[in-house]
Write a structure and sequence with these properties.
An eight-stranded mixed β-sheet has the order 1-2-3-4-5-6-8-7, with helices on one face. Helix content is about 25%, strand content about 30%. The protein has five helices and eight strands, in the order ββαααβββαβαββ. The chain has about 190 residues and is an alpha+beta fold. The longest helix is centred in the first third of the chain and has 14 residues. The two termini are about 20 Å apart.
Length: about 190
């Protein structure tokens, strides 16, 4: 698998591909994650919907997917301070797996609260799109977010995604309207 993001830096963000080893550290000894990433990790980590259940899911994907899974799940987003060189984990993004039989890949992303509204999500999504579109077998990139998450809606639209539908997502305690986005690019089928 070509790995355009590994060690790739765009603006202020370096993306580091997660692995089974990273996720085991997060699940078993999260205080060691900073050393593995060579970056400060906030006490608020993990953020968003990336919780223990998500970590366990991705770990099982790595364990069953082998080398082919590398690069198709999580990526850590590291801010590198231009003047001091200090490194800090600002968020994570990635794919819900390799492209399916129809060439569709889904992305997701999350930024720690103390780093939000500074453009990191936009940088992360642009890098994930560039990575996915570098593969001939990717025909469509999709993303979902709640209609109430205006910041995420803005990130996706500014990165070239278009709203193509809405649906109700039922959670344990409520129903919320979710929007489906698709990345439209002349290079994608």
């Amino acid at each position: 698998m070509q790995n355009l993001l590994q060690g790739h830096q765009s603006g202020r963000v370096e993306m580091i591909s997660s692995s089974a080893e990273h996720i085991r550290i997060e699940l078993e000894t999260p205080e060691l994650l900073a050393g593995k990433l060579n970056a400060f990790v906030s006490e608020h980590w993990p953020s968003g919907e990336y919780d223990r259940d998500a970590m366990a899911f991705f770990l099982s994907c790595f364990e069953t997917g082998g080398d082919a899974a590398q690069g198709w799940y999580g990526w850590y987003a590291i801010n590198i301070d231009a003047t001091q060189g200090a490194r800090a984990l600002v968020g994570a993004g990635g794919y819900f797996g390799p492209p399916n039989a129809d060439g569709i890949v889904e992305i997701g992303y999350s930024v720690l609260p103390e780093w939000q509204r500074r453009g990191y999500a936009t940088e992360m999504v642009n890098m994930l799109v560039a990575h996915a579109t570098s593969f001939d077998n990717v025909s469509k990139i999709i993303a979902h977010t709640s209609a109430e998450n205006i910041a995420s809606v803005n990130v996706l639209t500014s990165c070239g995604f278009k709203i193509v539908g809405a649906f109700e997502a039922k959670s344990e305690d409520k129903s919320e309207g979710n929007l489906r986005f698709e990345y439209l690019n002349g290079n994608l089928g």
